[in-house]
Amino acid sequence: xxxxxxxxxxxxxxxxxxxxxxxxxxxxxxxxxxxxxxxxxxxxxxxxxxxxxxxxxxxxxxxxxxxxxxxxxxxxxxxxxxxxxxxxxxxxxxxxxxxxxxxxxxxxxxxxxxxxxxxxxxxxxxxxxxxxxxxxxxxxxxxxxxxxxxxxxxxxxxxxxxxxxxxxxxxxxxxxxxxxxxxxxxxxxxxxxxxxxxxxxxxxxxxxxxxxxxxxxxxxxxxxxxxxxxxxxxxxxxxxxxxxxxxxxxxxxxxxxxxxxxxxxxxxxxxxxxxxxxxxxxxxxxxxxxxxxxxxxxxxxxxxxxxxxxxxxxxxxxxxxxxxxxxxxxxxxxxxxxxxxxxxxxxxxxxxxxxx
Length: 356
Prior knowledge:
Blueprint: H1 4-15, E1 18-19, H2 20-29, H3 51-54, H4 56-72, E2 79-84, H5 90-99, H6 105-108, E3 109-114, H7 118-128, E4 134-136, E5 147-152, E6 161-166, E7 169-178, E8 181-186, E9 208-211, H8 213-229, E10 231-240, E11 250-253, E12 256-258, E13 268-270, E14 273-274, H9 275-284, E15 288-289, E16 293-294, H10 295-302, H11 304-314, H12 319-330, E17 339-345
Parallel strand pairs: 2-3, 2-5, 3-4, 5-10, 10-14
Antiparallel strand pairs: 1-7, 6-7, 6-9, 7-8, 10-17, 11-12, 11-13, 15-17, 16-17
């Protein structure tokens, strides 16, 4: 069968250079050869490790977060909990282990998972089968009642477009071929200045601005459903609070940075999330957007310190590992500051962790 690199190169030869978004989409989600169609990318034997794999405390606190919102809404007898990109199912298993202790939560739950990786779907099923999960391929396929959404390191993996400030204005960055090797270049046609936010119009020469149209579309669909049904969207990811210039697209393989163009489909591609842009989309749909907080602030406010003490008391031999995990999740020089917690919810709800 034709390899993904050959498919991409053939498409470029036939149609000309492709946008960065098109390249990312093929690399990550090609139906047969995309990165997310391959083996399990998580853990020490994969390419990266996410917060739920570091400690059960992460998911347990998010379980409390959703129980609190569910109770604020009067403990509805039917609601949907949807996770985007559930990985191995670790996060949701930890969420539900805590959340289902609340009377009525389990009986009211309709669990939905958005996932495309067959290997991960099998692992999710193994962990979550007691909760009768349903896998969906659309953000519109949801059940009855309020909708709660959790997305940990999901938006960073959605395709972005890149624009570069040149002498004659902003030009889209594209992927083409130079001497039969993939290379970045610029579209010769500048885009209208009005197509980009006012905040970047005075950017210096060669500045890069990234636009996550796919992320905005996902947020729009989710927010419209939450606005109609009631509920909340919790997204935790690395990114920045305000729209700004800066190149953040990266490739990771075997826990190290890799060449973005060298091995299509063999490395994870991601970019920092523009949370201001996501917030603007959610507000337009009628949701209340909470002040963005760092992951460290969020977990500390939810009580990770107290949870760590309780786990250490119950498992004294694991105390050092529990303390190390807490530090990794919350410390400013590790995941605590780079990662942010974003929440858009029905007006009137008071999501835990977003205020003192």
